Amino acid sequence: MTATDAVRLQVSGEAGRMDNYCAAIQGAGGEPLAGYCPQPDLSFDGLVLCGGGDIESTLFGQENRGSHPPDRERDRAELALFQSFFQAGKPILGICRGMQLINVALGGTLIQDLPPEQRSRHTAQEGDLVHTVWARPGSPLHDLYGPSFQVNSAHHQAVDVPGKGLRITAQSEEGFPEALDWSERRIMAFQFHPERMSFAKRRPDTVDAGDLFHVFLDLCRLTGR
Questions:
Q1: Which of 10, 18, 40, 62 sits at a 20 to 30 Å CA gap from 49?
Q2: Which domains are present in the chain?
Q3: Which residues are marked as active site?
Q4: With the CA atoms of 98, 27, 198 and 52 taken in that order, what torsion angle do they form, in degrees rounded to the nearest 10?
């Protein structure tokens, strides 16, 4: 791949609910192909795992403790997607559920249902809430946005114990991870929704998250050389 080639991304998510992700990828100059439970296709330059419903709790060794009913077909498909791209050394971006899926795939665990006082700051009946996160010094988020900044939020679960190799690059006010990465394995993951904070969805009360899609596409270009 040369610097002028378009980056092609395989996108996996909930049927009919991937338009914002694809629009953000296109806004950054990439070419997405979205599908529900797609088969891994390593002709793509990278993988994007979108938001959505809860992951089956038995996949991280727990009984149901407040999880919503899972989509087991999607769980299986996205774990297979992750493993294929991970083993091939290709970049992977996880957003909300996607971050949680990456964490589970690498042996981590989840908080299945945030306590009510925390959930009220992260889960709205409709739309997004906005809150502050703190970035780890030296992380891409810290370099882009500084030590603390505003993001959106729409989730009732969160990463608990990070999976093998993952480092926490941003935390919520409550202390749970808002971003994870594994730079050597080309993994980026966010609990918040950058696709709803960038390009046509840019909002005045959060940072401009379009930069994160540019960073990911650049990573795919470098990896493909």
A1: 62
A2: 8-224 (3.40.50.880)
A3: 96, 193, 195
A4: -20
